Amino acid sequence: MSAFIALVRKDLVLYFSNRRSVIMSIAAPILIAAFFGSLFGGSDRKPANIPIAVTDLDHSPLSAKVVAALRSDSALTVGELAADEAQAQVKSGKLRAAVTLPAGFGAKAAPALLGGADKPQIVLVYDPSQAMVLPLVRGLLSQHVMQSVSQSLFDNPGGLLTDARARVTKSTQLTDERRAELEAMFDSIARVQERAASAPAAASAASAPASSGLSFSLPFSTREVEASSKPDIKYNSYSHSFAGMGVQFILLMGVDMAVGLLLMRRLGLWKRLRAAPLSRAKLLGSRIASTALIALIVFSVIYAVAFAFFGVRVEGSVLGFVAVLVAFALLTASFGLLVAALGKTPEATRGLAILATLLLVMLGGAWVPSFIFPAWLQTVSLFVPTRWAIDGLDAMTWRGLGLDAALGPVAVTLGFAVLFAALAIARFQWEE
Predict the structure, then answer these.
(1) Are 50 and 76 spatial neighbours (Cβ–Cβ below 8 Å)?
(2) What gap in Å lies between CA 222 and CA 140, rounded to an integer?
């Protein structure tokens, strides 16, 4: 029994002697739990601003009031754009949705609320990859339109109510009793409006009509359109999931390569190679090249499976797709080398690298869509290379965008790769 206890004690001493590894094993779950808790916890947390565009083709007082109400909503960031430009930005992923208020909206919406006219049709173009956005935007749009239309209907004397009363009087589909009830209601509303005009203070106490059996309906209809660059392209959720998980596990493969590099240093292999007439940059550069090649091969196999069994397609530029893969493979190699340069031992490096990888993947939007992040975190994620890599792969696959949409992600990813490689070569220690 004493031998058994001694062996257990030995394992505990060895584990806790590596303080950096112990700290990483504790810090990683704490940081990840705090990250997800901040996203999904607390009923008092305000939702992140959702970027949308509004196109007002009506230019009436009512449509202007709806646009102003959408702008004032804290859950939305609203810009006014032309319909074509707004739809193009939704297709590219820069906006989550685009709302178009049609011509004649102001004239038709209020009568449609009372069921006496054709409903104006609002066009809602949405990003199909953001499944949570559509019902939220749809609900906020209905709320603000209903509030604006009802306010214009009941706050202004005469006008629409007078027209509605006339239609009720002329209607042949209502019974005499029903017609009399509705006419009495309109007359009551008219008296309230007259008192409100002469005594604003009294209007606040009786600003809404009493229930009188009038059935209201949503004063508009909605035509929802998926944003796609080509009519035959349909959103495939596997496209984004393979991009996100591919990025994550390719980075983890780079971590394994980094640990292998440190094991080579522990065995003295790097010291022997340094005895040869080879520069620091050539030795470490060859490691970057081999790791990048392995990463590219692995990522290609992952996408080959996605193409064969999950319906993923490169709907955009094939050249752009390959460029994004190559750029990310180089980033993986330089990232692994940088982690090895910062880590002192293979054990500590593995913990540090896993923590860094998980943070990069989370901030890059591979696990949860970035639009649910707080506004400040959405800005921070733009400085994370994985965000650009995933966006570039999305653009080349299901979004079906051209080569120009890959240039930004490729440039940013390569920029980070060069930065990581330069820091790693400068800081790498040849002896443990």
Answers:
(1) yes
(2) 13
Q: Give the whole-angstrom CA distance, residue 95 versus residue 63.
A: 21
Report DSSP state, residue 46. P
pLDDT at 161: 63
pLDDT tens-digit readout, 385-424? 999 999 999 999 988 899 999 999 999 999 999 999 999 8
**Torsion sign over Cα 378, 379, 385, 391:** positive
Rounded Cα gap, residues 63 and 53, in angstroms: 14
Each as own residue / partner, the long-range contacts of residues 375-379 (CB below 8 Å, 24 or more positions apart, any chain) are 375/48, 375/49, 377/48, 378/48
Quickly tell me which residue has 């790498």 as its tokens: 428
Q: What is the DSSP string of 357-388?
A: HHHHHHHTTSSS-GGGS-HHHHHHHTT-HHHH
CA distance 229 to 223: 18
pLDDT in tens, 121-160: 999 999 888 777 888 898 889 888 888 887 776 655 455 5
Backbone phi, psi, residue 349, to 5°: -65, -40
Give the integer Cα–Cα distance in Å for 383 and 243: 18
Parallel/antiparallel/unpaired status of strands 76-80 and 97-101: unpaired
Name, in order, each residue with C-beta under 8 angstroms of 423's C-beta and a sequence gap of 6 or more: 338, 341
Alpha carbon distance 134, 131 (integer Å): 6
d(CA 257, CA 393): 24
CA distance 283 to 418: 16
Dihedral sign computed on CA atoms, order 406, 50, 133, 31: positive
**Cα 19 to Cα 13: distance, rounded to the nearest angstrom:** 11
| Nearest Cα residue to 225 out of 55, 396, 397 | 55
End-to-end CA distance of the chain: 37
User: Across-strand partners of 100?
Assistant: 55, 123
Amino acid letter, 33? A
Task: Return phi, psi of residue 313, to 5°.
Answer: -135, 150
- State the burial class of residue 99 (Cβ atoms within 10 Å of its Cβ: 0-12, 13-18, 19+): buried
The tokens of 426 are what? 């400068």
CB-neighbour burial class of residue 256 (10 A; exposed 0-12, middle 13-18, buried 19+) = middle
Give yes or no for a contact between 334 and 290, defined as CB atoms under 8 angstroms apart: no
How far apart are the C-alpha atoms of 161 and 111, rounded to whole Å? 9
